[in-house]
Write a structure and sequence with these properties.
about 200 residues; alpha+beta
Length: about 200
């Protein structure tokens, strides 16, 4: 293994023929120091990532959302939601969601859902993109839904989003979701896009 050269002292007695050797030694010393700094930074990054991943386990989340909902054959209407989650490990969360939307349009249908599922997340320090699948109860009030949905129905949703950790206890995020109905075959009558904030604790 080649060792980094010792510090070279330049004196007035150095001859011209030795200058190239001295320059090479100085260059090799600089390269070795650069490698050492890079290795130290890599170790620090791994330690920080491991600490953050460990903190994500057994972490509780609770928050709210507000945004828009689009039901088939209607325009853009308001949506509100509440959610909670628990960190099973550094990549999966168990989550529960309550989401409601009011649609006046031609159908006058209101949709309320209560669902649960799993979310897969990629924890990149402050930014946490995620994808999830949820299923549960959907209640259609007022006029029937676009595919005849009325009263209590089974439904599911696919979820994509990203959270930003403003601080360890507080996160803000954006979430889009496609809601599936199985009333008359398979259809996706509802789309929602929301902004949210949540409190985190229990690391």
């Amino acid at each position: 293994v080649q060792r980094c050269p010792a510090r070279v002292r330049w004196t007035g007695e150095s001859k011209a023929g030795t200058r190239g050797s001295v320059a090479r030694s100085v260059f090799l010393s600089w390269v070795c120091r650069s490698k050492a700094v890079a290795a130290a930074l890599a170790v620090c990054a791994v330690v920080l990532w491991a600490a953050r991943a460990s903190a994500a386990e057994q972490e509780w989340h609770a928050g709210g959302r507000a945004g828009i909902a689009v039901l088939s054959k209607t325009g853009v209407e308001p949506a509100l939601g509440l959610h909670g989650a628990y960190g099973l490990n550094d990549v999966f969360d168990a989550t529960v969601e309550l989401l409601g939307s009011h649609h006046v349009g031609r159908t006058g249908t209101d949709v309320l859902s209560a669902s649960a599922g799993l979310v897969y997340k990629i924890d990149v320090f402050e930014w946490i993109p995620y994808a999830g699948l949820l299923a549960g109860w959907y209640g259609y009030g007022g006029a029937p839904g676009p595919h005849g949905e009325h009263g209590s129905e089974f439904g599911a949703s696919a979820q994509l989003g990203v959270d930003y950790l403003a601080m360890r206890e507080l996160a803000f995020g954006i979430d889009v979701r496609w809601h599936a109905s199985f009333h008359d075959g398979f259809s996706v009558p509802l789309f929602t896009a929301t902004l949210g904030a949540e409190y985190r604790w229990g690391w």
